[in-house]
Design a protein that fits this description.
single chain; mainly alpha; globular
């Protein structure tokens, strides 16, 4: 059981939420010195480390939190999320399944499971997992966006358009929603609309490598090679050179 003052944990959480990661890290280091086996502090330390140094550096803190408290669904969830970010899909699925065993309606975990299945080309499985996620929260934009992409890949373009459109209406400033809408439009052959959605997404996340690659590919497809070049350059500058799988 945690023995630290709740105010200390709340303050660390507030620092992370406000982007004051260096200050949060200093506080969390002090708290871990006081109580190194506190799973809540370990999870917060993992979140802070992820913001500062990425998934590889953050993963050990979430793994330690699981060792300390195997009943912490947040520790299992963040383990799964980091593993997914690192491309370790099978291990990610195991961790996310543990999180869902503790909290079956945890929509974020179910959405990542569906996204992993889609990345692996298991589209029917992805569709099922994402529909289950939406039963937990019908307005969860990442699940709506991912399901729209999965359905578009299966040729179910009418429903895909409805879902992507709903995601954009719910959160027009969400880059993934705009990108999902663009993906559906591309599959419908509606390239003008797709281009506008990608431009919307790039206004939100101008340095996103996958979005830049997507725009470059679309412009190349429309025989606008000169316009595509800056987008390709931006994507390659971030070492993005593979197939595009914006999520």
């Amino acid at each position: 059981m945690p023995l630290l003052e709740p105010d200390a944990l709340r303050h660390a959480t507030q620092l992370i939420s406000s982007g004051q990661l260096e200050q949060a890290e200093g506080l969390l280091n002090k708290l871990l010195n006081q109580e190194p086996q506190n799973d809540e502090v370990l999870v917060l330390k993992g979140l802070c480390t992820h913001g500062l140094r990425g998934a590889q550096a953050a993963l050990p803190f979430f793994e330690r939190a699981v060792e300390v408290n195997d009943n912490s669904f947040s520790a299992h969830y963040y383990c799964g999320r980091m593993l997914a970010n690192l491309g370790q899909a099978d291990q990610a699925r195991e961790a996310l399944a543990q999180a869902l065993a503790l909290n079956p309606n945890f929509v974020e975990a179910r959405t990542i499971l569906g996204t992993l299945s889609m990345q692996q080309g298991k589209l029917e499985r992805a569709t099922s997992e994402l529909r289950t996620a939406l039963r937990a929260d019908q307005d969860y934009v990442p699940a709506l966006s991912a399901l729209a992409r999965a359905l578009a890949l299966q040729g179910e373009l009418e429903e895909a358009e409805q879902l992507a459109g709903r995601a954009v209406r719910l959160k027009p400033d969400n880059a993934a929603a705009q990108d999902a809408m663009a993906f559906v439009f591309v599959n419908q052959g509606r390239f003008d609309f797709a281009e506008q959605c990608l431009r919307n997404a790039l206004k939100i996340q101008p340095d996103n490598a996958e979005l830049n690659s997507g725009m470059a590919n679309l412009l190349m497809r429309r025989r606008r090679d000169r316009e595509a070049l800056p987008y390709f350059s931006k994507a390659l500058a971030q070492n993005f050179g593979g197939a595009r799988t914006a999520l």
